[in-house]
Amino acid sequence: MNQKFHELIAQASKVVLDKNVEIRLAITCLLAGGHLLIEDLPGVGKTTLVQVLGKLTGLKTRRVQFTIDLLPADVIGGQIYHPQEHKFVFHQGPLFSQMVMADELNRASPRTQSALLQAMEEGEVSVEGVTWPLPHPFYVIATQNPHQQTGTFPLPESQLDRFLMSLELHPASKETEVRILQGDDPRHLLQKIHPLFSETEIAEALIEVTKVQVSANVAQYIADLLERSRRPGFEGAPLSTRAGMALAKAAKAWAFMDGRNYLRPEDVQQVLIPVLGHRLGGNHGIKRGREWAGALQQSTPVPV
């Protein structure tokens, strides 16, 4: 099955140009059962990336544009009175999809942000005392504008931690932009894409990822990374045990796509900056956190 995921990357790369690594990391996050945060300027392909992943994975996908006046009920859904039946009926919001794009999440009020992030953590929502399970798999890809832009509400560190990974897409290279300007809009290719997976296959892949083994050697390496982040003088936020567990989960998904049922230190290194960047940066921003994650990676000895 792992070969089909490499085919997925190849197909997605025809639409989202110059982003092979980022596409693989986004799929890694899905397979690890986590959620993804993308921080970047408009126009670098965030929406197109979500659309192409949704089509290729065969997952039901919805996009929600977050604004200052968006209410939690607009995302989760709510009870609506049906006079014919003389009762309230729960109408599901766009959150009840398998892949949800929360666009410009940090433009919404903290109350609406919290409603989404609580659902991400618990996999369910409660309305009027009734609990409603969310679909499985359930994958949120949230985008946010750089935190220094006006009109934004920065996500608190405790809420940033709800995301397994974070990415920056960056503009395409000059050569790629020339190709785009000479040819068709890559988004037109979306109409020609067909699913490579069924919902069942994605669910099975998530289970297989959990079976990837973590050796004592690799576990020690992750523990060393956590310990070094807590030393006096390290600029980033100290990492929690949950951050280490997130690192292991993402590394397992990376190894699974390489066709292995065990981890190597290289798997941890491939996902280290996306997993730790937003956790180390906190309110200093993802960009600064990624720099600290890189420094942490360089200073921690890699086991042989």
Folded structure, characterized:
It is a single chain. This protein has 2 domains: 1-175, 3-Layer(aba) Sandwich (Rossmann fold), CATH 3.40.50; 211-304, Orthogonal Bundle (Helicase, Ruva Protein, domain 3), CATH 1.10.8.80. Helix 8 crosses helix 10 (241-257). A 5-stranded parallel sheet has the order 2-5-8-1-9. The chain has a two-stranded antiparallel ribbon with strand order 3-4. The chain has a two-stranded antiparallel ribbon with strand order 6-7. The longest helix is centred in the C-terminal third of the chain and has 17 residues, at 241-257. It is built from 12 helices and 9 strands. Helix content is 46%, strand content 14%. The protein has 304 residues and is an alpha/beta fold. The chain is globular. The protein has helices at residues 2-13, 20-31, 46-57, 72-76, 110-122, 157-160, 174-182, 199-210, 216-229, 241-257, 265-281, 286-299, and strands at 36-39, 61-65, 77-82, 87-92, 99-103, 124-127, 130-133, 139-144, 165-167.
Number of separate helices: 12
Taking the alpha carbons of the first and last residues, their distance comes to 29 Å
- CATH architecture tag of the largest domain: 3-Layer(aba) Sandwich
Overall SS class: alpha/beta
The CATH homologous superfamily of the largest domain is called P-loop containing nucleotide triphosphate hydrolases
Spell out the helices and strands N to C.
HHEHEHEEEHEEEHEHHHHHH
CATH hierarchy, class of the largest domain: Alpha Beta
Shape: globular
Total beta strand runs = 9
Number of domains: 2
Percent of residues in beta strands?
Answer: 5-15%
